[in-house]
From TrEMBL:
It catalyses: Hydrolysis of terminal non-reducing N-acetyl-D-hexosamine residues in N-acetyl-beta-D-hexosaminides. The keyword RNA-binding does not apply. Residues 145-478 form the Glycoside hydrolase family 20 catalytic domain. One of its GO terms (molecular function) is beta-N-acetylhexosaminidase activity. The active site is at E303. Residues 22-142 form the Beta-hexosaminidase bacterial type N-terminal domain. It comes from Pedobacter soli. InterPro entries: Beta_hexosaminidase_sua/sub, GH, Glyco_hydro_20_cat, Hex-like_dom2, HEX_bac_N. PANTHER family: BETA-HEXOSAMINIDASE (PTHR22600), BETA-N-ACETYLHEXOSAMINIDASE (PTHR22600:SF57). Its EC number is 3.2.1.52. This is beta-N-acetylhexosaminidase.
C-alpha cells in the first residue's frame, strides 16, 4: 500500500508540472520557442575548432546507436553547429548556450566542456522527442558545483571493463564529471602494479561473497583504456588506494607489510612501524599516479580501529611511538597518513581522505576531505573551519547501497531510514556552509555505491537507476530551479530509455514493475560507527 500511495502522489504532482524538453538536470534558463527542429539523416554537424572534433563524433555515434540516425559532418553550413567561443577563458567551464530553431541548432561555449554539456542536453531532447521533432528553445545553463561524482566499489564485487564503460556513459548522459574508483579493500585488490604483481594476482583472488574466485583485476592497459574513455566524456577518474586499514587483500599478497588485524578483520592494516612500508606504498602510488592523470588519489584513512588491535603490542610500532612521541594509535595513524600524503604531494598530486582524517594537519591547498558520516556533522564543520576543500557524500542520502523503499529487504538502512529518489534529489549542499565565504570550500557532492549486497549487474542497475538522475540534478541545478514534480515528469521518458538499454532499474512511479531481486547475504550487516 505504501508503494501505491507513493506512486500515485508522484504521478499526481508530475502530471501538472511543466518540464523543459525532458532535460535532466534542469537547466538554469529554458525559454520555449516556436516550432520544432526535425532531426534526421539530412541533418549534419559542424565545429569551428578541432578541440570539438571528438564531441561531434560522440554526438554522431550516440544518435546512430540509440536512434539509428546517421548524420554527417560538414565544414560549414551544417544544421547543427558546435561553436567554441574565443575569449572569456575565465568563464565557468561548464557553461553553455543551446539554441534550437526550426532550421538551425547552435551550441556555444567558452570551453569544450561546456560544448559537450550542451550536446548532452540536445541528445536528451532528441532521445525523448516524439517523431524526432525537437521543440524549439533557448537554453542558458551552467553547473552549480564543479564536483559531481559517483563512486563504485569494485573490491567487494568486480564488474569489469564493459560495465564500467556503461556507467561512464550514463554519468556523461547526466553531466556527472568525477568517477571515484574504489579498487582496493579487504576482499580484493583490482589494480595491476607491475613492481608488485602479486597484488593483483593473489590480492585479486575472491570477492565479498566468494573468497575462492579466480583473480579479477584491471591490467594497466585496461586502466588506460577506461581513463581515456572517461576523458572523452569529460569525466576524470580518481582511484582509491585504501590505507592504512582495509588492506587485507594487499597483505594476503605481501604479508611482510602487514600491521595485523582482528578476528573480524584479519590482516586489516599496513604496518606503520616499518620504514619499508612507506617505500612500498610510495612505489604503488607512483605507478597509480601515472595511470590516472587527474592529479589526485584517494588514500582512504577510514575505519582503522576495526582492525588495529595488534598495533598496541607490535614492537616496530611501539618503537615508532617512542621515537616520534606518538601518544596513541590515532596519532600513529595520523603520522602514517601525513607521510603518505607527502609522498603524493611530491608526485604533484592531491591527497583525498575520508572525514576521519580531518585532524592530520596537511596543506589545505593540496588536500580534499570527503564527509561521509552523516551522523557526525562535527567532522564536516571541523574540515570547513580548518579551510579544507570538501566533497559531501553523507550516507543519508548519498549512499546508493541503501535501499530505496521501506519494503526493500536487501541493502542498508539506518535506524529504518533509507535513500529514496526524492531524498537524493532534495539534498542541498549549500545549506552546510555557514556563510558565503565558506561556500567555495564545498566542491560538490558525490554518491557512493558500496557493493557488499551488489552481486551482479542487475542489482547494480537497480540501485543506481533512477537515483543517478536525482544525484545529477542535486549537483548541477541551482536551488531556485529545483522542482521535484517537474523532475518526476522529466524522469518518465528517461525510465523508458533505461528499459531500452536493458537496465534492470527501480521504477518509483510503478514500484512493482521491476521487483527487488534477492541477494545472498554473507552475514548480518551493522554499519554503526
Amino acid at each position: 500500500m505504501k508503494l501505491l500511495v507513493l506512486a500515485l502522489s508522484l504521478f499526481t504532482v508530475a502530471a501538472f508540472a511543466q518540464t523543459p524538453g525532458n532535460v535532466i538536470p534542469m537547466p538554469d534558463k529554458y525559454v520555449k520557442g516556436e516550432g520544432t527542429f526535425l532531426l534526421n539523416s539530412n541533418s549534419a554537424v559542424s565545429y569551428n575548432n578541432n578541440q570539438l572534433k571528438t564531441i561531434a563524433y560522440y554526438f554522431q555515434n550516440e544518435l546512430l546507436s540509440q536512434k539509428g540516425i546517421t548524420i554527417q559532418q560538414q565544414a560549414k553550413g551544417a544544421s547543427i553547429a558546435l561553436v567554441l567561443k574565443s575569449g572569456a577563458k575565465n568563464a565557468d567551464s561548464s557553461a553553455y548556450q543551446l539554441s534550437v530553431k526550426p532550421n538551425q541548432v547552435t551550441i556555444s561555449a567558452s570551453h569544450p566542456n561546456g560544448v559537450f554539456y550542451g550536446v548532452i542536453s540536445l541528445l536528451q531532447m532528441a532521445l525523448t522527442a516524439k517523431n524526432n521533432q525537437i521543440e524549439a528553445a533557448e537554453i542558458t545553463d551552467a553547473a552549480a558545483y564543479g564536483w559531481r561524482g559517483l563512486m563504485l566499489d569494485e573490491s567487494r564485487h568486480f564488474f569489469g571493463k564493459q560495465k564500467v564503460k556503461s556507467i561512464l556513459n550514463w554519468m556523461a548522459f547526466y553531466k556527472l564529471n568525477t568517477f571515484h574508483w574504489h579498487l582496493t579493500d579487504e576482499p580484493g585488490w583490482r589494480l595491476e602494479i607491475k613492481k608488485y604483481p602479486n597484488l593483483a594476482l593473489i590480492g585479486g583472488i575472491g570477492d565479498y561473497l566468494n573468497p575462492g574466485l579466480p583473480a579479477q583485476f584491471y591490467t594497466q592497459a585496461d586502466i588506460k583504456e577506461i581513463v581515456a574513455y572517461a576523458a572523452e566524456r569529460y569525466i576524470k577518474v580518481i582511484p582509491e588506494v585504501d590505507m592504512p586499514g582495509h588492506a587485507t587483500a594487499a597483505n594476503k599478497a605481501y604479508p611482510e607489510y602487514s600491521g595485523g588485524g582482528s578476528a573480524g578483520h584479519p590482516e586489516f592494516t599496513f604496518n606503520p612501524g616499518l620504514e619499508k612500508t612507506y617505500s612500498y606504498l610510495t612505489d604503488i602510488l607512483k605507478e597509480t599516479n601515472v595511470l590516472f592523470p587527474a592529479g589526485m588519489i584517494h588514500l582512504g584513512g577510514d575505519e582503522v580501529s576495526y582492525g588495529n588491535e595488534k598495533w598496541k603490542s607490535n614492537p616496530d610500532i611501539l618503537k615508532l611511538r617512542e621515537q616520534k612521541n606518538l601518544k596513541n594509535d590515532i596519532e600513529v595513524e595520523q603520522y602514517f597518513m601525513k607521510r603518505m600524503a607527502d609522498s603524493l604531494y611530491n608526485l604533484r598530486a592531491k591527497a583525498i581522505f575520508w572525514d576521519e582524517m580531518v585532524d592530520v594537519d596537511v596543506p589545505r591547498e593540496k588536500t580534499i576531505i570527503f564527509w561521509w558520516r552523516h551522523d557526525k556533522p562535527g567532522q564536516l564543520r571541523s574540515a570547513l573551519n580548518k579551510g579544507y576543500q570538501t566533497v559531501l557524500c553523507p550516507r543519508l542520502p548519498l549512499y546508493f547501497d541503501f535501499v530505496q523503499d521501506s519494503t526493500h529487504q536487501y541493502g542498508r538502512k539506518w535506524n529504518k531510514l533509507y535513500n529514496p529518489v526524492e531524498q537524493v534529489y532534495q539534498f542541498d549542499a549549500r545549506s552546510f556552509a555557514k556563510d558565503a565565504k565558506e561556500q567555495p570550500l564545498i566542491l560538490g557532492i558525490q554518491a557512493d555505491l558500496w557493493t557488499e549486497t551488489v552481486d551482479g549487474d542487475a542489482r547494480l542497475d537497480y540501485l543506481l537507476f533512477p537515483r543517478i538522475a536525482a544525484l545529477a540534478e542535486a549537483a548541477w541545478t541551482k536551488n531556485n530551479r529545483k522542482d521535484f514534480a517537474a523532475f518526476s515528469n522529466s524522469l518518465k521518458p528517461h525510465l523508458t530509455l533505461y528499459g531500452q538499454a536493458g537496465l534492470y532499474y527501480y521504477n518509483p512511479l510503478k514500484p512493482l514493475q521491476n521487483p527487488e531481486l534477492p541477494v545472498k547475504r554473507k552475514k548480518p550487516l551493522n554499519y554503526k560507527d
